[in-house]
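[09:14] KT: can someone run the structure on this one? pasting the chain below
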Amino acid sequence: MASIKHFQVTFDCAEPERVARFWCEVLGYVVPPPPPGFADWDAFNLALPTERQGSAFACVDPSGVGPRLFFQRVPEGKVVKNRLHLDVRVGTGMVGEERLAALEAECERLVALGAVRVRLLRADGFNESCIVMQDIEGNEFCLD
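[09:31] RB: done, structure tokens below
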């Protein structure tokens, strides 16, 4: 029998803390406690060499079930479509107008946080409707 592996999802980005805090709001995640010996993440960050300050941030599922999300600063900007994206499951088990209403309500909430609505993909007889979106740095994700 195969063993179950723990994993984290890593985002390359320009502003790790800003993007991490956005995803905390999207998913109900939290910022983990700072390392031992530091009162908060700002104190930890100031203890780093100047070139590493603000270079990474993380958030975690408070229930411990979902993967840790890690955000790392990279020098290059996003250029092409993601090869991997997150599906934020807000319409599970719903179909038709009920599903669309749930997706639209969540879309509205996320747009207020800085997300961008890209397009609605309507149900086609095989797939249910979903909304393609972008986070605050242009990374694609779907409301599903």
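[09:33] KT: thanks! The mean pLDDT is 93.
[09:34] RB: yep, looked fine to me
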